[in-house]
């Protein structure tokens, strides 16, 4: 039997992360102003590259293209390559990837390195990383329910939460994506994460 392998949310973990984001809402508002739209997007793409959320992949590339960013740069990050990325951004993108790989269980050395590279901006980078990780796992939770409908085994997660996200957020995303030329292009080029699995 085929298994759904992407990380998704349990109800408990979803609730904890949501509460933490609500507590951090003041910082969330300031991150884009402090870091800049492109840098924030790149951090989000780096996390998404590890977590494999197809909704976030499509949404952030769409946002970037709407803002005039070159497609190939974003595709490169989604392919886990930092070639061509500003050297000043690389430590933050590596941190976001490590955060996703370690399922948020980062150690003090990771945080120290972030602060050594970015000073006070490190807090904003950490906030963006937590926020996109929440988005990635929420998107994967939507797909976990679809996987169940398709007869795949989902070892972790919460059927109730998956259903709620699938019906509400999933419907919105599916409707926006189905007519998207970018979505079709990303699928054809093999960079729409979540589709490859």
Question: What is the annotated CATH architecture?
Answer: Up-down Bundle
The residue ranges in which pLDDT falls below 50 over 5 or more consecutive positions are none
**Helix count?**
10
In N-to-C order, the SSE pattern is HHHHHHHHHH
CATH topology: AhpD-like
**Overall CATH class:** Mainly Alpha
Largest sheet: none
What's the β-strand tally? 0
- What share of residues are in beta strands? under 5%
Average pLDDT, to the nearest integer? 92
Backbone structural class:
mainly alpha
Q: What would the principal axes of the Cα set say about the shape? A: globular
The tally of domains stands at 1
Classified in CATH, the superfamily is AhpD-like
Give an account of the 3D structure.
The protein is mainly alpha-helical and 197 residues long. It has a single domain (11-189), classed as AhpD-like (Up-down Bundle). The chain has ten helices and no strands. The chain has helices spanning 11-23, 25-35, 37-51, 54-66, 71-78, 90-101, 108-118, 121-149, 159-178, 181-189. The radius of gyration is 16 Å and the shape is globular.
